[in-house]
From TrEMBL:
Residues 71-179 form the Peptidase M4 domain. Its cofactor is Zn(2+). This is Neutral metalloproteinase. Extracellular zinc metalloprotease. It holds the Pfam family Peptidase_M4. Keywords: Hydrolase, Metal-binding, Metalloprotease, Protease, Secreted, Zinc. It is an enzyme of class 3 (hydrolase). Its EC number is 3.4.24.-. The keyword Zinc applies.
Length: 354
């Protein structure tokens, strides 16, 4: 794997926290500012302590390929990682629902990649899955730092406990899959593809865990994270980008659904959490057209491209759309419904397929 150093990836984008930091309510604004400061420090530390590619990880040669190796830690509302070990693989549930949700979400993500794609953990070689909960105080985010998942408890005013949404856990761990495969550069369209990959596989983790078909799924990312007072349903919608929230405090969901509304911005690493709505929507259209379980055919095409070695680290949307068409034809046949559906999906969002 070559390219850029694996990024520090958060589920709540900086532009949204920046908006909250200017809220009239001083409690909401203060929590957002603290989260921004913490994220900036972690982001800088990640750049300074990593090089291109993933660091070697100690592995147990005897570990079974069909079972995860999960460990959950409790930061005790501090920022030192990993924190105190509170649940290991195979241990009984604890009295802390946050710990148990994190443990279950790690397992659900492992199971999606194992069962649907034959992948042994995030790196394909049995990488242990570590998570830390109760990070910092009123921390409004969850992140993948290249080594582990970390969850805040939220401020209770805008965001709730970040382990509530299993797709958030799947999303962040999928950044690890991208890190160990295509390692998409975290800026502009390649960065938006990086984010979209995590939304896609995060949604598939949720759908598989709930036994939902493409027709039954809500196609929301982070449903359940927003407090009751917030006018919104989730952080993002793959079905209808731009409609996940519209709130006086949180702002308006800025995601476009098609290239006609592509957002040109220098914020958020060139809009990686914003323009990801376009490939997100294409995947939704593809999966919905095929019907059935989205992780089986639509997800297989996306996985083939992510792991196939032909996706450049600086790939743009058009590169990815063409590769998915080729992958659908290679796996399912040039004249099959899969190839037709993916061409139709990309054409609908305004991207080329040949």
């Amino acid at each position: 794997m070559t390219g850029t150093a694996p990024p520090y990836c958060t589920i709540v984008p900086p532009h949204l926290l920046d908006h909250l930091s200017r809220a009239a309510d001083p409690v909401i604004a203060a929590a957002a500012r603290r989260t921004l400061v913490t994220d900036a420090a972690n982001r800088t530390a990640r750049r300074l302590t990593t090089v291109a590619g993933a660091a070697p990880v100690a592995r147990d040669a005897g570990a079974a390929a069909d079972r995860p190796r999960r460990t959950v830690y409790d930061a005790g509302h501090r920022t030192a990682l990993p924190g105190r070990k509170v649940r290991a693989e195979g241990a009984d549930p604890t009295g802390d629902a946050t710990v148990n949700r994190a443990y279950a979400g790690l397992g659900a993500t492992f199971e999606l990649f194992r069962d649907a794609y034959g992948r042994n953990s995030i790196d394909g070689s049995g990488l242990p899955l570590d998570a830390t909960v109760h990070y910092d105080r009123e921390y409004n985010n969850a992140f993948w730092n290249g080594d582990r998942m970390v969850f805040g408890d939220g401020d209770g005013r805008v965001f709730l406990d970040f382990t509530i949404a299993v797709d958030v856990i799947g999303h962040e761990l999928a950044h690890g899959v991208t890190q160990y495969t295509a390692n998409l550069a975290y800026f502009g369209q390649s960065g938006a593809l990086n984010e979209s990959m995590s939304d896609v596989f995060g949604s598939l983790v949720k759908q598989k865990a709930l036994g939902q078909s493409a027709e039954q799924a809500d196609w929301l990312i982070g449903a359940g994270l927003l407090a009751a007072e917030v006018r919104g349903v989730a952080l993002r919608s793959m079905k209808a980008p731009g409609t996940a929230y519209d709130d006086d405090v949180l702002g308006k969901d800025p995601q476009p659904a098609t290239m006609a509304d592509y957002v040109h911005t220098g914020a958020d690493n060139g809009g990686v959490h914003i323009n990801s709505g376009i490939p997100n929507h294409a995947f939704y259209l593809f999966a919905k057209e095929l019907g059935g379980n989205a992780w089986e055919r639509a997800g297989r095409v996306w996985y083939d491209v992510l792991t196939g070695g032909r996706l450049a680290v600086d790939a743009e949307f058009a590169d990815f759309s063409r590769l998915t068409v080729a992958a659908a034809r290679e796996r399912f046949g040039a004249g099959g419904p899969e190839a037709d559906a993916v061409v139709k999906a990309w054409s609908t969002v305004g991207l080329p397929t040949e």
